[in-house]
Amino acid sequence: LVAALPRKHQAGLELRLYQGFWLPDHWVAGTVVFQRRFAPRPDDVILASYPKCGTTWLKALAFATMTRDAYPAPAQHPLLRLNPHDCVPFLDEIFADGQEAKLERLPSPRLMNTHMPHTLLPESVIAGCKVAYVCRDPKDMVVSLWHFLRRRQPELPFAELFEHVCDGAVAVGPIWDHVLSYWRASLARPDRVLFLRYEDLLLDTGKHVRRLAEFMGRPFSPADEGAVEAVVELCSFEKMKGLEVNKKGSAGAYHAMPRDSFFRKGVAGDWVNHMTPEMATRLDEVVRDKFRGTGLAAP
Ligand code: A3P
């Protein structure tokens, strides 16, 4: 199957067009297994995102929220010792690696993450799991992705990556179809799919942590503002970036990346420092065109 799929080599990655999305070549076979064999549990929560749109933050927030009663003393929390990627298993790599037996051994409720678009999730997940999705302004995604990829490819020109993003041909792209897949699913099944934005999280993290907690079936009581604050504080960019565990070592299996590469600037609007106004307008127009009539506001 994999060999018959259209192929591109871009920004150092081998990509295959699978069911409308450009997947990293080494994920395709695992994705098919994920689609066919993943056995969800009723209390599973899956965190979904396009790469570089807030995955690490969402993992930390969801993990801290789910485990808050297990670690009432903030100084004991595992997020002080472990990178968020080591707390929430990454389904796409687990299946790519043939390691799905690991998932069986996880205690319930399981928290896992994926970069797959909603339309590529297993039917069993679509029917039976809660999925929280975070999206971000694609312009800031490109900037974040470029800095991330440059850790491996220092010579990668920004303009080249920008072209690939506009063509939709970067890992799990096109980004607009990825975002729309979750947007539509969240409209159809708001009890199953929570749609979050990185920029909203920055503006009022506590408000969206409450939404996330409620969605995951672990609501904070109205009087629990202190517990919400503790989660927000533990997962804040400054706190996470400053932890020793996030300054050294690497996260991920196939393409292990330095842990510090997941904490760069943590702001909205950094695209102004990297793109010409023409580039910004061009990407905005592509996205606006794709979002037209869907009810989803373009950035
Ligand atoms: P920047 O490169 O713009 O700084 P992902 O986790 O999906 O790979 O996304 C990485 C982006 O999220 C990076 O953006 C990173 O700095 C930012 N990020 C990571 N942890 C964060 C946190 N706790 N709060 C806010 N942003 C965070």
Write the layout of secondary structure elements.
Elements: E1 7-10, E2 13-18, E3 21-24, H1 25-37, E4 45-49, H2 55-66, H3 84-87, H4 91-96, H5 101-104, E5 111-114, H6 123-128, E6 130-135, H7 138-150, H8 158-167, H9 175-188, E7 193-197, H10 198-203, H11 205-215, H12 225-234, H13 237-242, E8 250-251, E9 257-258, H14 277-291
Parallel strand pairs: 4-5, 4-6, 6-7
Antiparallel strand pairs: 1-2, 2-3, 8-9
Helix pairs in contact: 2-12, 11-12
Provide a quick synopsis of the model.
The chain contains 14 helices and nine strands.
Kindly name the structural category.
alpha/beta
> Which regions are unreliable across 5 or more consecutive residues at pLDDT < 50?
none
User: How does the overall form come out from the CA principal axes?
Assistant: globular
Q: Describe the main β-sheet briefly.
A: 4 strands, parallel
The number of helical segments is 14
Bound chemical compounds: adenosine-3'-5'-diphosphate
CATH architecture: 3-Layer(aba) Sandwich
Keywords: Transferase
Enzyme class: transferase
Pfam families: Sulfotransfer_1 (PF00685)
Domain Sulfotransferase: 42-295
